[in-house]
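hiii, so i know i said id send this last week but things got crazy w the move. better late than never?? heres the sequnce for the chain we talked about at the cafe, plus the structure i predicted for it. fair warning i was half asleep when i ran it
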Amino acid sequence: MGGLRAAEALRKSGYSGPLTVIGEELHAPYNRPPLSKEVLSTVVTHEAVAFPRRAATEDVEWLRGRSATAADLDAHTVTTDDGVKHAWRALVIATGLRARRLTLPGRQDPSMPGRYTIRTLDDAIALREELREGRRLVVLGSGFLGCEVAATARKLGCEVTIVSPSELPIIRPLGLELAAEIQRRHEAHGVQFRMGRSVVDVLGDARFAGVVLDDGERLDADVLVEAIGSECNSEWLAGTGLDTTDGVLADAAMRAVSLDGTVHDDVYVVGDIARFPHLVFDQTPRRIEHWNIPTDTGKRVGAVLAAKLADDGSFIEIAARPFTPMPTFWSVQFEIDLRAYGLPSLADETRLLEGELAGACVLGYYRGGRMIGVVGLGMQAALMPYRQVIAAGGAQ
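okay and structure toks below
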């Protein structure tokens, strides 16, 4: 998605030169969030999530089924897994994330039948085949992804247990009160929880058969979904000198930054892998894994990089323009229709602003008395004024 949006923005911003997009997946770009929500509950196909093709990118060269293995910033090349070196005038890093896998001594074969992640279209297609009525499902992880998969599987008739070391599901971004309400609603639909627990063993030889928890409890199951976070696809940048401490560091113009502080006018970062300052909140560079960030950063890179490549004198002015994307996320779990703006995970105070916690409601999230996030269960129209407050710096 990030690569697609950057390519579209480059064309829209006037760049008409050669443009190549390299991607590991064989599929044309598609929308990932629905894979754990409405799409997973039906027949999973590429057509259901594919982004529309636009005339502006018809002449883009798409190298799908290829992954980058190395980059040389001095020689201006990227090497792919087939050994080919691709020369570039400018490089956009949009390699995103991959699902983190459960690692246990002697049980580190993630390809065991019955063990799944859900990051890609192929992941969702494979998992959907398993979600049949009566199947026993263990979901490892209680973040948004884990809870969405649990809700979908339960609606399909599966028996579902969520296992997580956290105190409550989705507690980090939502806070104690709303997290407890999310768990209550899941339990009302029959989802079971083992919170404060971790997996110490995976059962089964030829196929997954269950897990053993750190308190000795054995959960027999047919399917394990590992929703324990993600890892940055940044290993191919080893030796470049770029700051890959957590993703790839970028400035507010999305230009890549080296460990020594060098800012690269010809290397840019887009999407989940980008760690950049979100100036609405503070100067601290952060990675934000929300659905709008690949689009917003892709558009930003397209405008800045097109000006750089045009060499018409507009680059400095365009790069200096404020970039303040509003982090946005949404989730659907049973009757829960959740939408959020800002960075509620940074809050030190939560306030119920409208409605009731057990029904439709709006919660505000504050840091030092300043609104930095808002979350709504339903009541989507009521969120927009609060979004504007956050964008304006949180002034009340």
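btw The chain has a mean pLDDT of 94. thought thatd interest u
miss u guys!!
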